[in-house]
């Protein structure tokens, strides 16, 4: 895979080009393009154009959430805003029958709004599951990023939206602590241990973190909307004011 900036129809774009001829790689690349092209939401980066070997995306100036966290954790107020923005995007995906299956800081573009780092964009649908497609090319696989993939995803279960909620919970933990919750992520996923790093951030967030990261998906919030409500209540308890809109973010709390 080759990624580069280019000019396209008078604007700067980000181009992903498939550079190998392996049949499996071609199928995965085209799968990513089909899923991403089916989405239309201000917090989701969808391609402007697609061919069998190239995807052309709008260029988002800034960096990834991982690059930001490499400099240290976010403040609780900013961490909550980032999580709410991601939940907004994930809620839309789930309404479209899409489970992302790779929500992680590397797949979150983050750029400065009027009050700091809180504007987000969700990218990369290479591991996604879509009910609209007749074939799930990743069916039964353990594809994912161990620190952020849900235990049931590690067992090959795909298409459960609660897997994305697990990832958002881990991501919120990462934003608050500056690192993921499980040092030995594979051991946790395999059920070999339950060693969790100390919960970061304000105590009012701890019950939601534990629920979102629960091994049993039935114990997690029922939906992205439900998780948003819980996070908004915590934000209200902490006295944090929502950031004013500036190019797309989490909607006002209900």
From TrEMBL:
Would I find Transferase among this entry's keywords? yes
Indicate the segments annotated as coiled coil, or none if absent: none
This entry's Gene Ontology molecular function terms read:
protein serine/threonine kinase activity
Query: Ligase: is it a keyword of this entry?
Result: no
UniProt keywords, alphabetically: ATP-binding, Kinase, Nucleotide-binding, Transferase
* InterPro entries in the record: Kinase-like_dom_sf, Prot_kinase_dom, Ser/Thr_kinase_AS, Ser/Thr_Kinases-Pseudokinases
Protein kinase domain segment(s): 1-239
Q: Which SUPFAM superfamilies match?
A: Protein kinase-like (PK-like)
Note the superkingdom of the native organism.
Bacteria
EC number(s) from the headed UniProt entry: 2.7.11.1
* Pfam family membership, one: Pkinase
The identity of this protein, by name, is: Serine/threonine-protein kinase
